[in-house]
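Quick one, tokens below:
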């Protein structure tokens, strides 16, 4: 390949990658507002998974919860669901899949911050349990998107 064409190929590849994100369906504004009250339920654990990295790299990241499709996040998005108490497993699918096993306790909220690191050839996702004050601040800066189950029911 002509060495003068390499910069053009690189730019075209970057444009294609950054625009390849599919549309992630947003939750209803009322559902977003309700989830941001951070209320609890005596019989369940609330799980928030958020990406507050409003970065230029806008790759959508697929998540799986207990082996079932949970949803996708993009920059500035979060997912929310109620879980039964017990052991659970959250997985992020990128070039290097990441897993986060955790225990849900009734009457509590859990916050998982998902970050994206992009290397030269690979995208890598990281899942971290964070304290409630940190998680609430991150969620407030994001918009709720539908879980896979919510999107399928429409």
């Amino acid at each position: 390949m002509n060495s003068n064409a390499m910069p053009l190929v690189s730019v075209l590849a970057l444009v294609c990658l950054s625009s390849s994100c599919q549309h992630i369906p947003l939750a209803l504004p009322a559902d977003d507002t309700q989830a941001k009250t951070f209320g609890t339920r005596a019989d369940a654990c609330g799980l928030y998974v958020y990406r507050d990295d409003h970065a230029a790299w806008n790759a959508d990241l697929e998540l799986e919860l207990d082996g079932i499709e949970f949803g996708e996040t993009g920059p500035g998005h979060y997912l929310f669901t109620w879980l039964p108490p017990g052991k659970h497993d959250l997985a992020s699918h990128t070039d290097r899949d990441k897993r986060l096993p955790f225990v849900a306790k009734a009457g509590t909220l859990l916050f998982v911050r998902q970050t994206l690191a992009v290397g030269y050839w690979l995208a890598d996702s990281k899942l971290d349990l964070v304290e409630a004050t940190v998680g609430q601040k991150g969620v407030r800066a994001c918009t709720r998107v539908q879980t896979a189950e919510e999107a399928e029911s429409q």
